[in-house]
Design a protein that fits this description.
Length: 265
């Protein structure tokens, strides 16, 4: 039998152990950061990519217009990604080109070439929340995900798209952001973003972005066939339909120069 003194020692040891575990427990902020870092880590090393995309714009009545787009992206080791977006159809947007340099901390660099004006327009930080080419995507939505852009809070677990997922709040550090926060669902198996809710400067739900029909490329990298952005405040939506993905195609930094926007294809 355990005597009284021995029992007291065991209880004291148990209390110390529980205290030690508690002192090393991660905060919701640390958990949210860890999940977000894993999202980035699981989608690193693809070097560069090319893809075709259909941008489908729908108004409140369900009427739609479709734009044909080609996108090139270059991964950067110590910086955000570079991307070049070229519009090919219809005729009224043909030749329009958008160049984006994402950065982890400082403001992203973005330029838009409008063939009707025959000039390259720089997108200022104060205009990043504006709509991109009449879509429900803002210019800031087109930047690559960089962990340093946000502060994080883990909100719990939920099932979404039949997948057990983490729910994380992301608060933009950039004061020029059009959002007070984003709420992101990430599946636990592959750390793929399943859904994002965007809250406006009044902290009211503005938009929801859903990622649908993920496919794996070159045995490692997941991409969604469809990205659906729904604006809850104006009833409009924009769907991005992706196809013809190719990775490690030999793109270089010289393919993403500002002075090549006018002649990019």
């Amino acid at each position: 039998m355990i005597n009284t003194l021995t029992a007291k020692k065991l209880l004291a040891g148990l209390a110390f152990s529980l205290s030690a575990v508690s002192s090393f427990a991660l905060t919701p902020q640390e958990i949210g950061l860890d999940i977000s870092q894993k999202v980035k880590q699981h989608d690193s090393g693809w070097v560069d990519s090319r893809a075709d995309m259909l941008m489908v714009l729908r108004n409140q009545q369900g009427e739609q217009s479709i734009r044909e787009v080609k996108i090139k992206t270059l991964e950067q080791e110590n910086d955000g990604d570079k991307s070049l977006t070229n519009f090919h159809k219809p005729k009224d947007v043909k030749g329009t080109a958008f160049l984006s340099y994402s950065h982890p901390v400082k403001a992203d660099d973005q330029w838009l070439y409008l063939p009707a004006l025959k000039r390259v327009k720089r997108i200022s930080s104060s205009n990043k929340s504006g709509p991109f080419m009449g879509s429900e995507f803002a210019f800031e939505d087109l930047s690559s995900f960089e962990v340093e852009k946000y502060k994080y809070t883990y909100l719990g677990d939920e099932t979404i798209n039949d997948l057990d997922s983490f729910k994380v709040e992301q608060d933009p550090i950039d004061t020029s952001s059009g959002y007070t926060r984003r709420v992101v669902w990430v599946d636990k198996g592959e750390y793929r973003i399943q859904k994002i809710e965007f809250y406006d400067r009044k902290n009211t739900l503005l938009k929801t972005l859903s990622y649908l029909n993920y496919k794996k490329y070159i045995g490692q990298y997941w991409r969604a066939d469809s990205m659906m952005m729904v604006n809850h405040q104006n009833g409009k939506s924009t769907e991005l339909k992706w196809s013809n993905y190719a990775f490690k195609t030999g793109l270089k930094k010289s393919d993403f120069k500002k002075n090549s926007l006018k002649r990019s294809r």
